[in-house]
Write a sequence for this structure.
């Protein structure tokens, strides 16, 4: 079974969504999934860049209305 966590970063502005998501990722074992919801338009570029730099896998990046939803697998 894969560990999963969710983090609601709606209403937070750059760089807080990525910084707080990074903190939540520390709670997961390797292979765990973190779903992050964010409303900051900068998050659309920030999360893919964060994953490239840290080696985490960006499993998906979708939009639910005004909310961006990112699923990240911890390396």
């Amino acid at each position: 079974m894969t560990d999963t966590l969710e983090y609601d970063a709606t209403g937070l502005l750059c760089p807080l969504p990525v910084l707080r998501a990074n903190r939540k990722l520390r709670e997961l074992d390797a292979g765990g999934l973190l779903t992050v919801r964010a409303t900051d338009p900068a998050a659309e570029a920030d999360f893919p860049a964060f994953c490239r730099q840290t080696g985490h896998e960006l499993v998906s990046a979708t939009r639910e209305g005004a909310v961006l939803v990112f699923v990240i697998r911890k390396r």
Observations:
- Strands lie at 4-9, 33-38, 57-64, 67-73.
- The chain has a mean pLDDT of 97.
- The first strand starts at residue 4 and ends at 9.
- Residues 4-73 form a domain with the Translation Initiation Factor IF3 fold (CATH 3.30.110.40).
